[in-house]
């Protein structure tokens, strides 16, 4: 069956006539180019709305712009990512750019490659890669094809911009809080990492490093106890089971992400261990689930909304000027203390 | 700055030569057309993998296929939607189709229209609309442009397929469980709905209707008590606050979705009401958060994974044959009882 003929599309010429401006002016406004005055933008925007004009993305794709931002999310279940996404879409609201999400694969470099290739292939104007695990050279390959902002991952590249949280400080905030409550046996659940690039750049690796440094700074180097699983609820569950099986149990667990802490709370409840009476638990990301009454999880707030807004700023900037030097934005986290942390049992 | 020239792309001709088959055969396999034998598929797939061939989506877009499935999710925070998505992507794994997600707007028809138009504009081969709130005529307009499966929403249309849960039965399971525990004052928090089409078709409206019918069937028509908010955590919080302010409080709250129940648990914890001692709480969707130790929420399982798999089957089928009659798949829910429901206080 052939597609039925669609009604005639409103074109850029119709918009220009309606707004009583030149097609070049309409085009400038659509491209968000410099040299379009606010008054001109307002006129063109009004005509676009009144006529219901939609730029044809396929046709634009052949010319080089689709007004689409591809966002690779490694795990749609991690409740931190919607925070970033909210900040991003809010900052893009008054632009012609539309966000489409590509679900990556949790800890699966092949799945990540597939979805990023698919997004490049579909003509995204820019890409946002959230906590990508691909090699540095692969990220640079992507960034050479299309303006790219890498979120969460540290490290400097001339090819792409980064927005990340100061994860060393975030980990130190958790350890400092637990130490001030009187804890010494503080364990950490990390997301396993062996690749040297990723050990230097991934937020999970840097949180684990921050945990070690903070333990040492507090004279607790001998108490360092790290369990390696994954940043998932299952990873937290498995990690807590290992820690609860220790002959000397920790009195506090610092989970590297809220989603991990949720798994810890699950395992701990099953084992009949009371939180925070027998065991304190802290997470990282300050997600809405952490704030939830029955959960009430102490967690590090890395300002996901702000991360998303900074990401939008950088990518619009990079679309306008692909030759500008790459930028690294580092945001400072804060600690939100809730009911899951308290002094250790005496 | 011009984009650097990319290395020469692997073409369909290279694949055909490598697999020692005709380009027509390769094309058939890529289109998932009938008449390509399993042996032929295997040969071509192997050549594609060995050469790292990627069909060029932009070029295909102009010819009519981009091998992209657009999924509109109304709310990326609702923990039920990843379940559907998992089932969908798993069922598409061995096909050339890539899923891209368009974040809709929670209860915002304009945002929903914007994202669906954007996805059509970008040449999606098929669309999946999860619990869309748009008018029937708008959904049919979308389905006339591109093969469409509507998920969650009931109602029959010749233009699109639907996959939904039997929400009447789901609501009856919750009420029956609470009645069998001894509850009579069972309240319900619904997602507000006034549009007549949506009252007849949206899962939230049908759950509310199922609640009313089940209460009547149990001789509890006089106890029907519905609070209208939204299917969000905030909606659950606000709804519970209203119910807790009643002179005669309910002894059980049936929240129309797990995300709503989470807000209920939050408000209830703040008010110092104990669950399930003073108040039973049940949700709908059986999300991973419901299963979480500290939450342990009684909930209706509507088999999101199965919904996603059925959706994939229907859309592949519809891409192959756009003229086939539309299909309606209705799945049966089950109840998972956990710690948030118990007999009422005596």
From TrEMBL, chains A, B:
Task: Please give the name of this protein.
Answer: LacI family transcriptional regulator
What CDD domains does the annotation carry?
A: HTH_LacI (cd01392), PBP1_LacI_sugar_binding-like (cd06267)
Classification via InterPro entries: HTH_LacI (IPR000843), LacI/GalR-like_sensor (IPR046335), Lambda_DNA-bd_dom_sf (IPR010982), Peripla_BP_I (IPR028082)
Note the PROSITE patterns from the entry.
HTH_LACI_2 (PS50932)
Region (Disordered) residue spans: 325-346
Say if the entry is tagged with keyword rRNA processing.
Answer: no
Care to name a GO molecular-function term for this sequence? transcription cis-regulatory region binding
């Amino acid at each position: 069956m052939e597609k039925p003929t669609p009604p005639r599309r409103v074109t850029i010429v119709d918009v220009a006539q309606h707004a009583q401006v030149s097609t070049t002016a309409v085009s400038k406004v659509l491209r968000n180019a410099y040299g379009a005055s606010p008054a001109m933008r307002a006129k063109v925007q009004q005509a676009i709305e009144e006529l219901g004009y939609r730029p044809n993305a396929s046709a634009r794709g052949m010319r080089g712009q689709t007004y689409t931002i591809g966002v690779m999310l490694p795990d749609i279940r991690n409740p931190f990512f919607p925070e970033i996404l909210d900040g991003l879409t809010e900052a893009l609201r008054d632009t012609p750019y539309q966000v489409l999400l590509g679900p990556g694969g949790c800890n699966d470099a092949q799945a990540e490659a597939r979805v990023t290739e698919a997004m490049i292939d579909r003509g995204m104007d820019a890409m946002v890669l959230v906590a990508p695990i691909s090699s540095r050279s692969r990220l640079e390959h992507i960034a050479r094809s299309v303006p790219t902002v890498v979120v969460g991952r540290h490290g400097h590249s001339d090819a792409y911009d980064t927005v990340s949280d100061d994860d060393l400080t975030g980990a130190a905030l958790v350890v400092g809080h637990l130490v001030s409550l009187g804890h010494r046996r503080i364990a950490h659940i990390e997301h396993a990492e062996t690749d040297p690039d990723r050990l230097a750049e991934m937020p999970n690796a840097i949180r684990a490093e921050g945990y070690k440094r903070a333990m040492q700074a507090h004279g607790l180097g001998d108490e360092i106890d790290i369990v390696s699983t994954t940043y998932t609820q299952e990873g937290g569950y498995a990690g807590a089971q290992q820690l609860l099986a220790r002959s000397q149990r920790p009195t506090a667990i610092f989970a590297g992400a809220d989603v991990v802490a949720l798994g810890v709370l699950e395992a701990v409840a099953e084992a009949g261990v009371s939180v925070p009476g027998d065991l304190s638990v802290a997470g990282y990301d300050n997600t809405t689930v952490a704030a939830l009454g029955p959960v009430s999880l102490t967690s590090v707030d890395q300002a996901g909304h702000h991360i998303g807004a900074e990401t939008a700023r950088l990518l619009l900037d990079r679309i306008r000027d692909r030759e500008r030097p790459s930028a690294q934005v580092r945001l400072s986290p804060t600690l939100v203390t809730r009911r899951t942390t308290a002094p250790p049992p005496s």
